[in-house]
Amino acid sequence: MNESGEIRAERERLLARAAVEREHVSAQLRAWEAPLALVDRSVAAVRCVRRHPEWLVAAAVVLAILRPRRALAWARNGLLAWRAWRWVTSSRLGRAREALRAAGVTGSRARASG
Fold first, then answer.
1. Based on the domain organization, do 4 and 41 belong to the same domain?
2. Which of 7, 66, 68, 71 is deepest in the core (most CB within 10 A)?
3. Do 47 and 77 belong together in one domain?
4. Residue 25: phi, psi to the nearest 5?
5. Which domain holds residue 5?
6. Could you tell me if 1 and 7 are in contact, meaning their C-beta atoms sit under 8 angstroms apart?
7. Number of other residues whose CB lies within 10 A of the CB of residue 62
8. What DSSP letter does each residue of 21-72 carry, written as one string?
C-alpha cells in the first residue's frame, strides 16, 4: 500500500473513532438533559419573581385570606428560615474576615467588607 492509501485508511479509522466518541458523549449528555431543564425552569421562575415581586405579595395575601392558620405557620417558618440564613451568612463572613486578617490582607477590599 502506498503512502496516500495509508493516509486514507488512517483517516477513515479516525473518522469512525470520532463518530463512536461523539455518540458516547451524546449519550452521556442526554442523561443531564432533564436535570438541566429543571434548573433552567427554576432560574426562570426566580427571575420572574424578582421582576414581579407583587405576585409573591398577592399570593401571600390570598393565602392569608383563605387559610389564616396556614399563613401564620408559613410566616413563622419563613422567619425561622430567614434568621437561619442570616446566621449562616454572617458566620461565614466572620470566618472569612478572620482568615483575611490572619493572612495579613489589609487592602481596601478587606476593609470595605469588614
1. yes
2. 71
3. no
4. -65, -40
5. 1-51
6. no
7. 11
8. HHHHHHHHHHHHHHHHHHHHHHHHHHHHHHH-HHHHHHHHHHHHHH-HHHHH
| pLDDT tens digit at each of 114 positions of the chain | 688 899 999 999 999 999 999 999 999 999 999 999 999 999 999 999 899 999 988 988 998 899 999 989 988 999 999 898 888 888 777 777 778 788 887 655 544 544
Extract the C-alpha cell encoding 6. 495509508
Cα 56 from Cα 43, distance rounded (Å): 16
Say if residues 1 and 9 touch (Cβ distance below 8 Å).
yes
Domain match, 47 and 73 both = no
Using alpha carbons, list the distances in angstroms from residue 79 to 32, 33, 49, 56: 35, 35, 19, 16
H helices then E strands: how many in the chain? Answer: 4, 0
